Amino acid sequence: MTTPLVAFRDIHVTFAGRVHALAGIDLSIAEGEIVGLVGESGSGKTTLCKVLTAMVRATSGTIEVAGEPLAARIKRDRLGFRRSTQMLLQDAVASLSPRMRVRALIEEPLTIHGLNAAEGKARIEVLRQRLGLPAEALDKYPHQISGGQARRVAILRALILAPQLIVADEPTAGLDVSVQGELLNLLLDLHAEFALTYLIVSHNLAVVRRITQRTVVMYLGRIVEAAPTAALFAAPRHPYTAALLSTHPSVDPAKRRERIVLQGEIPSVIDRPSGCHFHTRCPHVQPRCRVDDPPLVTETSGRQVRCHFPLTAA
Amino acid sequence: MSPPTGAIPVIVRILSTVGGAVGAAIVLAVVVAAVFAPFVATHDPDAINVFQRFADPSSAHWLGTDQLGRDLYSRLVHGATVAMAVALAAIGMALTIGTLLGIAAALVTARIERFILILFDIIASFPSLVLALAVVAVFGPSTVLVVIIVGVTLIPHFGRVARAQVLTLKNAPFIEAERLLGASTLRIVFRHFMPNIAGPLVVLASMDIPVVITIEAGLSFLGLGVRPPLASWGGLIYDGYSFLSDSKIPVIISSAALGLATLGFTLFGEALRDAVDPRLNRDP
């Protein structure tokens, strides 16, 4: 097996000594893979991205980037790591410095990384046309361009550094459906063209289903299920995944699932439920679930599920 | 996030209010007098003519003369130069040091932040006049000392505002985006924090101008600031006050000039504050 591009090993992140945002994450992302990360607000998706992009330090556990521990990688070559791992923030307009023009924002990575200005500007021009960003937009301020254009500016700022991995937090949030479609196509094309690896975080299951190869489902700071996207959407193994997918509308009435409505709110990460963390809301809860915490089991098919009584395809 | 505010709409908004228009006119008059003093003045401000002591206002001496027969109008014009120079130097110093300390306080560890805030409290709790008396007692009166004393006492003004502004910005998505791109802290401070916190600081600076002018006048009046014969508004008032029994005109005119200038800068500062306040911007 080749070295994964990113490997999380038992990552825990605790804020203020008691908020366990991440409680034991094991996850590998292979080079060239497109991984989707889904889960409710508060499930730890954003924290996981921040740990990966070295914006938040893991309380315990190790992360390896191309086989090298993240801390060592940053110590050795901080800017190199920044070039290799880029992130697209959820609010693209707010992620652009409000008093700088788009042109200055796009050229900023060249300055920060001391790249050749003439070459860089030539590459910016190629990428600008490739991304379909109108030339007029370059002389505007971030609040004067559209949400779709702001995404393209953010993508351009990332791509100019020739990254290996792009973490995208809700890449389609706040966009019209038509613009969403365009943007997803663009991300897929760029994936092939620039040999990128994606970690895509989204509430939008349609987005995850459309572009990811593997889907990871998180609940209360832990992975509850991970499987190839097609298999996961066809037959979820974890009751939580099943409930999430049941909210996802299908055009084919024959395939329409019965809507599973979960009871109650997502429990607090400060005061975790005993046993299986999902037992307070699980429609299939058994006595064992209340006391015995299930491990994340890797099945022979390669699918992973954290459940004592995984669902089987009906 | 307020959109970038262009200079032209701000000027239009200032002039559209009565206070702003009056303030701007006075500020313009004082600034022109200060910058072009040798051309605006009708006489040499230091030319003594003992035969013309306490002359009444006339076509030769627009505002009359003082106890040495010096032209009062010309001395007031040159006093404007001193007042503006002291105000700009003191505020420039306070703005620079205060902003840097304030930004540092918002970004460094809690321990150093506490140290900087306590420093601000100590400075702010010191009345500038008492500080001035103490410093002048040691070093003797001088214009440079006035600048330093006033500048130091204004540091907390700018420091606290800068810190508060940076605290609201430091978790903004665009700052996170810059860090993700690999930008250094220095770059983020100068390229991203500074332009976004400049607005409130400039307003504060403009509102501090009349404060500094009155402090300088007060110190000079007490003989602790600008040394005679250099013309300063406080010195002119003191001269007029000393010879009150000979003529009431110099003290009245000098005081009126100081009052008018202070009023003008205050009105202008308030209009500027309102003009850039996003909550008051009805037509962006």
Core attributes:
heterodimer, A: 314 residues, alpha/beta, eight-stranded mixed beta sheet, four-stranded antiparallel beta sheet, 21% strand, B: 284 residues, mainly alpha, MetI-like fold, 11 helices, 0% strand
The CATH H-level superfamily of chain B is MetI-like
CATH topology of chain B: MetI-like fold
Give a count of the beta strands of chain A, DSSP E runs of length 2 or more: 12
Oligomeric state of this protein: heterodimer
Annotation field: number of helices of chain B: 11
The secondary-structure class of chain B comes to mainly alpha
- Overall 3D geometry of chain A? globular
String of helices and strands of chain B: HHHHHHHHHHH
- Note the beta-strand portion of chain B: under 5%
- Helix percent of chain A reads 25-40%
Mean pLDDT of chain B: 87
Cα separation of the termini of chain B = 13 Å
The CATH architecture of chain B comes to Orthogonal Bundle
Rg of chain A, nearest Å: 21 Å
Compute the number of helices of chain A.
Answer: 11
Please report the first level of CATH classification, the CATH class of chain B: Mainly Alpha
* Major sheet size, sense and barrel closure of chain A: 8 strands, mixed
- Low-pLDDT runs of 5+ residues of chain A are none
**Beta-strand residue percentage of chain A:** 15-25%
What is the 3D form of chain B? elongated
Task: Find the count of extended strands of chain B (DSSP E, 2+ residues).
Answer: 0
Structural summary, described in words:
The complex is a heterodimer of chains A (about 325) and B (about 280). Chain A contains eleven helices and twelve strands. Chain A has helices spanning about 45-50, 70-75, 80-85, 100-110, 115-130, 145-160, 175-195, 205-210, 230-235, 240-245, 285-290, and strands spanning about 5-15, 20-30, 35-40, 60-65, 70, 85-90, 165-170, 195-200, 215-220, 220-230, 295-300, 305. Chain A has an eight-stranded mixed β-sheet, sandwiched between helices. Chain A has a four-stranded antiparallel β-sheet with strand order 2-1-4-5. In chain A, strand 11 (about 295-300) and strand 12 form a beta hairpin. The mean pLDDT of chain A is about 90. Chain B is mainly alpha-helical and about 280 residues long. Chain B has one domain: MetI-like (MetI-like fold, Orthogonal Bundle), CATH 1.10.3720.10. Chain B has helices at about 5-15, 20-35, 35-40, 70-105, 110-125, 130-140, 145-170, 175-180, 185-220, 235-240, 250-275. The longest helix of chain B has about 35 residues, at about 185-220. The two termini of chain B are about 15 Å apart. The mean pLDDT of chain B is about 85. Chains A and B meet through helix 3 and helix 4 of A and helix 8 and helix 9 of B.
